[in-house]
Amino acid sequence: MKIAVDISQAMYEGTGVGRYTSYLVEGLVRYAPTHEYIFFFSALRGKLPKKIEQLIRPPHRLVKVPLPPTILEFLWNHVHILPIETFTGNIDLVITSDWTFPPTKAKTMTTIHDLVVYRYPETSHPRIVSTQKKRLSYVLKKCDCIIVDSRSTKEDCIEILSVPEKKIHVIYPPVEVKKPSKKMIDSVLDKYHIHKPYIFTSGKIEPRKNFDRLFKAFKEARIPQLLIVAGPKGWGTENLEKNPPISRDIQMLGYVSDEDLYALYAGADFLVFPSLYEGFGYPAVEAMALGCPVVGSSTSSLGEIIEGVGITFNPNDEKDITRALRQVSSDVVLRKQLSEKGIKKSKEFSLEKFGMSVKHLFDILLI
Predict the structure, then answer these.
(1) What are the domain boundaries of the chain?
(2) CATH superfamily, region 2-174+350-365
(3) Mean pLDDT in each 10-residue stretch from start to end of the chain (367 residues)?
(4) Is the peptide bond preceding residue 197 cis, with omega within 30 degrees of 0?
(5) Which of 63, 71, 123, 245 has a CB 3.0–4.6 Å from the CB of 40, allowing a cystine?
(6) DSSP state at residue 249
């Protein structure tokens, strides 16, 4: 069968959706190789990660659509013209991205990562809210199969969008990390002038990630560890820029490579993940896989993933965040227990399990 896959989001390295798209390509090529894939992306100047290009070999094809993503988003989400077959030729199935939904004669599959544009619209850029709602309007009318990253997102789809439950399939994204050596950890800490002990948090700097409350709770907690923050600047950071977390105990690194990210997880006393809402939450599982204890929000998918293997808090309550920080900061035995539980839990999120689960949906759709 010929299957077209929109992998445009793979260009956005360092984001959750970028990670997901890269894993999708690898999972399909490795665990569902009997189909012929046409992987396509739209860009004028953007490039895919080299790892992705290296995975795509005959009989599979890579097709670049020489249009800016904004143009394609308008054509597909707003006026809904220009069938995907214009670029791919005849296909049996198209897997759309989380940004557009193209016209097609083929069967359709998509992933809904989260419904933050409905749950917390004020924490997303207005353009993202508008684009997602336009896309989702076509998903509701035309999509044959919907993958979601968690039970939490499945429940949101049923409650908010009234999607029939039989259309929704929970497939947890895979997480793969490379365990750094002690020498690598020391080198990365030296590179960023970080002194132990420290706690770590990672994510794009934007309102949904809830860093404002974390910084206030951290200052109130008065724990011995530094707070290290890694992540690119997103939108809505004006307040943070006007009132930066002035403290010798808080260090903001900006974007870091995956290699450095893994070392920062591995060297930390624990990860704190205060996000208001997540469809999945890669940092939590990546930290677990590297033996880093996790302290995070009890809401959305994070509670689902962290419960039983980490310490949770109410992300809307600064006092509760402070309580959790103090609890884990001062208890070495607890951190060791959480580390062991997290390592075991992280093994549930394998690439093979992900790829085989998607393959199973193909078998159902393409009978």
Answers:
(1) 2-174+350-365, 182-346
(2) Glycogen Phosphorylase B; (3.40.50.2000)
(3) 96 87 96 96 88 95 93 95 96 96 97 95 91 97 97 97 97 96 97 96 91 95 96 70 69 94 98 96 96 97 94 97 98 98 97 97 89
(4) yes
(5) 63
(6) T
Residue 124 is predicted with a pLDDT of: 87
Q: How far apart are the first and last CA of the chain?
A: 10
User: HEC string of 30-68?
Assistant: HHCCCCEEEEEEECCCCCCCHHHHHHCCCCCEEEEECCC
Intrachain domains 2-174+350-365 and 182-346 with the same fold: yes
For tokens 């227990």, the residue is 337
- What is the residue type of 328? V
Residue 364, judged by CB atoms within 10 A of its CB (0-12, 13-18, 19+), counts as exposed
Spatial distance between the Cα atoms of 24 and 3, rounded to a whole number of angstroms = 13
Structure tokens at 285: 């599982």
Beta strands in the chain (DSSP E): 2-6, 36-42, 61-65, 93-95, 107-112, 145-148, 168-170, 198-202, 226-230, 250-254, 271-273, 294-297, 311-313
The answer to whether the peptide bond before residue 293 is cis (omega within 30 degrees of 0) is no
pLDDT at residue number 245:
63
For residue 125, the SS3 value is coil
**What tokens were used for 92?**
């049996």
Q: Name the class of domain 182-346.
A: alpha beta
Q: What is the pTM of this model?
A: 0.92
